[in-house]
Amino acid sequence: MTITITVEKDGYYEVNGMRQEPSVSLYVIPAASKLRRMLKDTKDMIVCPGVYDGLSARIAMELGFKGMYMTGAGTTASRLGMADLGLAQLHDMKTNAEMIANLDPFGAPLIADMDTGYGGPLMVAKSVQQYIQAGVAGFHIEDQISNKRCGHLAGKRVVSLDEYLQRIRAAKLTKDRLHSDIVLIARTDALQQHGYDECILRLKAARDIGADVGLLEGFTTREQMRQAVQDLAPWPLLLNMVENGASPVVTTKEAEEMGFRIMIFSFASIIPAYMGIRAAFLRLKTEGVVGTPEGLGPKKLFEVCGLMESVKLDTEAGGDGFEDGV
């Protein structure tokens, strides 16, 4: 059978002599499905800078990163002004993740920290449901005790394997019940307390009950990193790179060569923000000016935050608020 399609100048086309009106069907892929496809359909490592607020997320979006990571440490520092000691709870984390994920719901997928799940199985289920509703693409849940701390501090303690698996199982049941593609990342912080072999045992157990990705927090050597990828292959692993933390520094290229599928940089924006703000405040205190570089004023900052998109929307809707420019 021969099918002849002729496209005309006015955009209409003919199929075997019958004139057809052009139509376009668009299917927008949700962020969770996009992240899942990136893991399944490509071999590329997904590099996610750590973001903690709308501005840091906008900068990551401006630079074209394929994913973003909402850091619990950065969220705690920016929203609460406190150290990462388990003080941020579900409301703090979910509302921040929702804001970031919905700056561009169809852009770079957001992976978010979910700490310990904020309680027992029922609370884990509630947390997962709220993250799904917020538009989060993936999250990691860990095995630290409720009185937890940043993964790159000393003195961490973890719950029993059974309690850890309750958290993973509750998360898996919830995402399945809601028919969500959200990516479940099982994290273990057991290395300090119990050693490498216990970490692998826990991650394998989490994998076997349905976790999509594994995360061993706080590697102490490069050899451990390579070994973990081999011991858990072909299950995808995420590497959390915290410079000047517990782990040796490796580049994105090195991590990809080791076989990691996702790499997050938890402190990639919060530490430079501290450095930049402190330097500006110090100059203001000592010299009486901030010293902002020429050309970097309010309008440039607002452009990063979607100024021109807002102007376009208002104008196309018939508004006159920007007739005289901005």
UniProtKB/TrEMBL annotation:
Gene Ontology MF term list:
methylisocitrate lyase activity
The record ties this protein, via PROSITE patterns, to:
ISOCITRATE_LYASE
Could you tell me what reaction this enzyme catalyses?
(2S,3R)-3-hydroxybutane-1,2,3-tricarboxylate = pyruvate + succinate
> Pfam families, from UniProt?
PEP_mutase
Under PANTHER family, the record lists: PHOSPHOENOLPYRUVATE CARBOXYLASE, PHOSPHOENOLPYRUVATE CARBOXYLASE FAMILY PROTEIN
The text of the family note is:
Belongs to the isocitrate lyase/PEP mutase superfamily.
Q: What is the designated name of this protein?
A: 2,3-dimethylmalate lyase
Q: Which organism is it from?
A: Penicillium frequentans
